[in-house]
Structures
1.
Amino acid sequence: MNTLTLRSIQTESHPETKMTFWYLFATSKGAKTRIKIMRLLQSHPYNTHRISQELMMDYKAIKHHMDILEKNNLIDKFDANYGATFFPSTIFEENKVLFDEIISRMSV
């Protein structure tokens, strides 16, 4: 069996970026939800309310994950008010191969 570990990740990336992606998308409790959010945002920018509808999850739970992704500079928002639209950040886009490798080797 090919076990996914931080050291087994093949993608070249800055070590801190690799650690951040590893934590947020592979080992933390909310990893699967954050993967779903990022997959959704890759297809189209959405606001938090719409993401909660699309994923059929509680608004506050989605807001929590959005705050984590924003704090780690993996999403950007357009408009600072309620209803702000979110989309993947440049940092995320530059490291999309790393994200893809992590999720391809997980059972998500």
Note: Strands lie at 46-47, 75-78, 85-88.
2.
Amino acid sequence: LEEMQMAKVAHAQSPSETGEHASSDSDSEQACSDSGSEQAVSDRDTQEQALRAELKALLVEKPILERSLSDKDTQEQALRAGLDALVVDNASQSQEQSLRDRDAQEQALRVELDSLRSGLEASSAQIVQLNSQSQHMSEVEAKLNAEIASLRTELEMERKTTGDINTREQALRVELEEMQMANIEVEEKLNAEIA
């Protein structure tokens, strides 16, 4: 975009001095309009890059949380198996002291199981939140892409209009030069006849 803008400025400065002051104001206004549109596109691109980086970070974090959730599920299954074994053991034990020991172990396992469940719930909630953020980022990215495409289309239309104006200006300059040459020839003929 910067190269196209520089080429356009160089092209606007290349015609002869005839009518240069008359077209300088319109060229300046057009350059300002192009510059504003290009800055808007650049800002959108910068914002889009930042959102893409944040989305990538979220996508990296998601599988880590999912693996942690799977590991906690495995731990829960192991604890449940141990708890079931203790319950079966308690049924077969006849001594009161042994039963108290088993009860204490069972209670400790139940506390650990409750703690693990709390961790699983927190991880699940975090994954849900991560999915929501990822979806939101995708929606924002799509919206920004649409806005950038619209701005670029508008900029291309402005450039086409500028090109049409420049082409018409060049044609008028050529026509003016031809008229001036014709006037000079007529003036020379008149001077010759008068002489």
Note: Residues 96-194 form the longest helix (99 residues).
3.
Amino acid sequence: MIGNILIRDTLNAKELNTLLTEFPQYKLLNLDLDKPLISLGIEECSQIEVIYSLSLQQEEINFLPHLHWIHSPSPYLDNICVNFAKKQENILITTTKSENLMQVGEFAISAALAFAKRLFSWEEESLHP
């Protein structure tokens, strides 16, 4: 199954192309914050693993059974249901606290995906197939 990454913030074409090039096994979904998450469709929502957004409501998490990571490009989590997400025990919540919000967000997404796909363990795995 190909996982989905939902981006609910503005990334420029270069940033999106970088993500597509680095992580072709993921499908990038773009959705404006003013549109409801369910407008993507239940099937698309059920495959979302990562969300890059300033906002996520508790009722939206119910449509995301495979959600593992929420990253906010802002240090403020006022619009993200942190307490509910913490209760799920399998959702990582990160924020960006820097002037270079976009670059740090790209790095965070890239690093999480690399670890999720075990890209850094290939040498060890080649010794013990």
Note: The helical segments are 13-22, 42-46, 58-61, 82-87, 101-116, 122-127.
